Amino acid sequence: MSASLDRPLRLLLLSTSVGALGSGLGGGVELTLHNIAQALSLRGHSVKIVAPSGSVTPFPLVEIEGTLQPTAQNEGRTAAIAMPPNAVLANMWAYAYQVQAQFDMLVNFAYDWLPFYLTPFFDRPIAHLVSMGSLTDTMDTIIAQTIARFPDSIGVHSQAQADTFSFGTQCRVLGNGFDLSLYQFCPQPEPCLAWVGRLASEKGLEDAVAVAQIVQKPLKIWGVLQDKAYWQQIQQQYPTAPVTYEGFLPTEQLQSALGKCQALLMTPRWVEAFGNVAIEALACGVPVIAYHRGGPAEIVQDGKTGWLVEPGSISGLVDAIARLEEIDRYTCRRQAEAVYSLAAMGDRLEQWFAAIFNHADIPT
Ligand code: UDP
User: Fewest Cβ atoms nearer than 10 Å: which of 208, 249, 346, 361?
Assistant: First the structure.
């Protein structure tokens, strides 16, 4: 059903509770939340963000004290729900409950059980933007219950991510949107490769390092050092690989450095829900060489804006690097502009919210 909004909304955006905004621990969710707040503000909606204390954002912010949530990535399918004492997640949603009357809608960015469980107890509708694919049975069950009771309330970033859930056909695929004016097009790269992401096992950095060792081309790595032992192990395994860890940079510096690279390598072990870094690279004119799976496989146009390689195939990555000359860097930038602008994302978000209001029978 198509629907549209007929007035500006007051929106309360509840961030992930695994890290403060700006820390990098929240992964792509941090930039996603920022970009969505910007896309909605540009449309005249008012946004307020609720996030763990220590967060940094230019938008109106309510900081909440409490213990951070553990990350869900590697807990195993049958993991029980973890809730530390004085959990910041619980405190954020207690705050939201108190102030909900001041808002038209709440938007949840946390991949955690509690916000889904609480949804029927709130007066205001809650839109859930799910940032990862299926990881645990408990999360699958509660999200399925939520979408059954509140149709259209679940947004995801890619079709591949939706397909990891049994209720995938009911999810709204939103992609993502970026302030492309922050990303400068770089026509002439230097002879080096890039890898960008949290240094954690699901991101598969070791395959990119293995390739750098084979092709003996410098590989620059940017991202939060989430798992130090994992990174040490990679360094021991590939002692002669020409790789450098360049730290975790704010967007402005990251795009400037990333833009100078010949290609971005994306070698995740898991079904990457989207892969913000793919768009950031394309926006700078950097082709993306990615495993043919998950979000990156829906973003990269094989042979046009990068190469898609059989997951786990080191030789496939090597071959793709040898064919980088065939990719036109302007085409990469143009793809980012056509599909992943803030304006395009703003359209998709407004349609999503309108559909939720439609179901909730609340006049917009
Ligand atoms: N990032 C950053 N600075 C860095 C490296 C990464 O700000 O030096 C950000 C990047 O902009 C992206 C996020 O880290 O938004 C990684 O998100 P992605 O969706 O690629 O993966 P996730 O961490 O969510 O699995």
Answer: 361
